[in-house]
Amino acid sequence: MTLSALPTVDARHFPSPAPTRDPASVLDVDRLRVTYGARVAVDGLSFSVRSGEIFGLLGPNGAGKTSTLSAIEGLITPASGVVHVVGINVREHPLEARANIGVQLQATSFQKELHVAEVIRLYAGLYGILMTDADVAAALHRAGLERFAKIQPGRLSGGERQRLSLAIATLHNPPLLLLDEPTTGLDPHARRQFWTTIEAIRDSGRSVLLTTHSMEEAHGVCDRIAIIDHGRVIATGSPESIIEANRDLPRVRAAARKPEITLEDVFIGLTEPIGSAA
Fold first, then answer.
1. How deeply is 263 buried, as exposed, middle or buried, from its count of CB atoms within 10 A (0-12, 13-18, 19+)?
2. Which of 15, 85, 121, 144 has the greatest number of beta carbons closer than 10 A?
């Protein structure tokens, strides 16, 4: 399948989210600290995600990305620090905060005995949303899955399953969408199609926070990024500004394989591989 054959995604397909208390910021993470016994996974992490942007969280394995997402979702209790989602304190009002978040995991298992349309209706019910047949059809159309309505999820390709997962995560029109390495394992066509979809979600006014190991994804899709290492933010800004600010550092130059400095060169130059000394 060629790129020209991919279905187009119109931002108008995604209804605008309800206005937040602070229109400039949908997510605020302030001095977040997460520990597991004596091990510090997140060490005073601070960043914010603005309304209507795609924000990427980059870091080596073990840098604290998953722990940060878990704290934002309210799945773990941080040792200290505060997380606000649309102005709501996640620790003090977890249910209200979660109602404003959509989550797509790297891998999701669906009820294998159900058809795709039935899965959509099931998860809508869990969100307390009553969907008519027309509503289900519209959700499938937005995801480009209308021809798979009567197909079991297990028969979908990896890219199709990710689109189904994304459709479910946005059923309740959340202002903030959390994506954990959403394009891992996807082929180039499916990856590009997924990028087009999340760009449409951003253009509808929502915010997207994604973790990724793909420098191409971070540079090509994210409006801003934060590079984290050992649980701390070591660089934040647009991909271009981060490259410009760090291009002449000796470690970055040493990592470069070509004269033109890339985001990957900066990432490798600034971070330490797992197992290195802190």
1. buried
2. 85
Q: Decide: 149 and 196 in contact? Cβ < 8 Å.
A: no
Q: Give the chain's count of helices (H) and strands (E).
A: 10, 10
pLDDT digits (tens, 9 = 90+) for 166-188: 899 999 999 999 999 888 888 89
- Contact yes or no for 35/41 (Cβ under 8 A): yes
Four-CA torsion 198, 170, 191, 64, nearest 10 degrees: 90
Q: What sign for the dihedral angle of Cα 230, 236, 238, 244?
A: negative
Q: Any residues with CB less than 8 A from the CB of 106 and at least 6 apart, and which?
A: 180, 181, 182, 184
Give me the residue label for tokens 């959403």.
182
Q: What is the pLDDT of residues 235-262, one digit of tens each?
A: 999 999 999 999 999 999 999 999 999 9
Neighbours of 5 (CB within 10 A): 7
